[in-house]
Task: inverse folding
DNA sequence: TGGGGTTAT
DNA sequence: ATAACCC
């Protein structure tokens, strides 16, 4: 199913003509008049963004191949959170209500995707696979990864120079159909990057059976923006000269990754509607509205500049499990929900092997207008409970429930009627178990403390501290 | 809108 | 602890 390699061949080497082919016919968001003058910066990096196609649906189709050629949606509560391309052809969209989706497509097959375990596991397999090629892999959600392949490109470049410079051709699309200039060192590196991106996608497909898109560019931001250009299972290379065209193709600022809901609201009050407005906006005014840091960051993004590194994600920083519902309004119900969430969560952490030192309870209260705000309370886990994650058996659930109920009462006065629509439990502040070698201090401490703790009483002191004292760092 | 995640303040 | 961001 792979898209064929598009040769950048002979005619592509248009030496001096640094400007890409004029593509002014597209109705772009930016007015003709004021193109801010900025050169594409010479960062020298090569970054790939990999974005799996309708990830949850793909995982479900692998789990049950019968679903392959049917329109398929993945459902959480009453929402179709994602769907395969058969379903999209028939008008089903991401985050559509089940009702609307069934109206659009009566034959739609739905699978429940509220348990993320299969997606999480597959997701980490992808990240680990990419990690075999290169240590610099950063996750973004479950279905996206950034890979900094600068070093691999350099290595290939050297090999090519020694073996006498064979043909280099682009793999996949080039944004804007811009001609490649093989006399331009930056172009050559990015072209090699496109070949490596094709190999990464190939490995993800042959080893895991998953398809996805890739974007190749000189930084994370641009690689992410360009990866969506050709949509299922294709890849796109961005050359520096087309950077402005790419970012100006965004018709609204909220499509800029890094500019979310809140910032969009503020920018709109300032009269900033599209990317060109943001590029041209007075920096000092922007800094007053958003703070220096955010202002400078997003204004640089508006030019396609992003010096943020690809930061290896490593193992997760937190483990959480949540459930949403129509109504939960008594303490007993809260306790039941928590007891439902915990065993799975505890098992996941146990598999991870590290010990959490912080626990958090998050709630969402029903309310008509600002239904999207949550509150949380967290506390340090008492050390003896942290340690129980290390090993099997003993009932760690009950003391955790006790702690969580105390956290709950810190947020909610149970004597006043309440109406929750979500509960979430999160463990964070994960530490490796002291790698107790024989003879080390850690070994003796670990051996000596646990023997006599039935683990019932010490829970009391955890949340009792009126000062809320957290032993957290 | 769900069921997750991250970092900055 | 919250607020912002990402999927």
Result:
């Amino acid at each position: 199913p792979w898209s064929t390699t598009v040769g950048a061949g002979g005619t592509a080497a248009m030496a001096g003509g640094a400007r890409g082919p004029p593509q002014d016919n597209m109705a772009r968001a930016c007015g003709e008049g004021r193109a801010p003058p900025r050169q594409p910066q010479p960062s020298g990096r090569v970054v790939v963004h990999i974005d799996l196609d309708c990830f949850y649906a793909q995982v479900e189709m692998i789990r049950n191949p019968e679903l392959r050629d049917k329109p398929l949606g993945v459902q959480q509560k009453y929402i179709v959170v994602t769907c395969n391309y058969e379903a999209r052809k028939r008008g089903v969209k991401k985050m559509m209500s089940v009702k609307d989706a069934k109206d659009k497509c009566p034959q739609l097959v739905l699978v429940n995707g509220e348990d993320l375990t299969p997606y999480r596991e597959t997701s980490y397999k992808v990240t680990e696979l990419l990690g075999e090629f290169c240590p610099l892999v950063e996750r973004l959600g479950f279905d996206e990864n950034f890979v900094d392949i600068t070093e691999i490109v350099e290595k290939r470049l050297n090999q090519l120079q020694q073996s006498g410079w064979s043909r280099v051709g682009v793999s996949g699309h080039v944004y804007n159909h811009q001609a490649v200039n093989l006399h331009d060192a930056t172009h050559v590196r990015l072209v090699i990057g496109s070949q490596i991106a094709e190999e990464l996608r190939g490995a993800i497909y042959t080893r895991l059976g998953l398809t996805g898109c890739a974007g190749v560019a000189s930084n994370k931001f641009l690689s992410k923006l360009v990866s969506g250009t050709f949509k299922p299972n294709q890849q796109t290379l961005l050359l520096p000269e087309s950077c402005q065209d790419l970012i100006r193709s965004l018709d609204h600022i909220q499509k800029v990754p890094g500019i979310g809901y809140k910032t969009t609201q503020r920018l709109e009050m300032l009269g900033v509607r599209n990317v060109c407005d943001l590029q041209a906006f007075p920096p000092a005014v922007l800094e007053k509205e958003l703070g220096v840091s955010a202002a400078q960051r997003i204004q640089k993004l508006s030019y396609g500049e992003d010096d943020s590194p690809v930061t290896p994600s490593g193992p997760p920083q937190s483990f959480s499990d949540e459930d949403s519902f129509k109504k939960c309004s008594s303490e007993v119900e809260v306790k039941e929900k928590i007891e439902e969430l915990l065993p799975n969560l505890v098992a996941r952490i146990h598999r991870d092997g590290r010990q959490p030192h912080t626990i958090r309870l998050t709630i969402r209260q029903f309310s008509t207008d600002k239904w999207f705000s949550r509150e949380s309370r967290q506390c340090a886990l008492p050390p003896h409970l942290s340690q129980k994650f290390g090993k099997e058996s003993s009932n760690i659930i009950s003391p955790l429930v006790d702690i969580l109920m105390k956290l709950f009462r810190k947020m909610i006065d149970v004597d006043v009627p309440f109406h929750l629509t979500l509960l979430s439990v999160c463990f964070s502040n994960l530490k490796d178990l002291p790698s107790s070698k024989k003879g080390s201090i850690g070994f003796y401490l670990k051996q000596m403390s646990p023997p006599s703790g039935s683990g019932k009483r010490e829970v009391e002191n955890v949340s009792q501290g009126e000062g809320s004292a957290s032993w957290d760092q």
Observations:
- The domain at 47-249 of chain A is CATH 3.30.70.270 (Alpha-Beta Plaits).
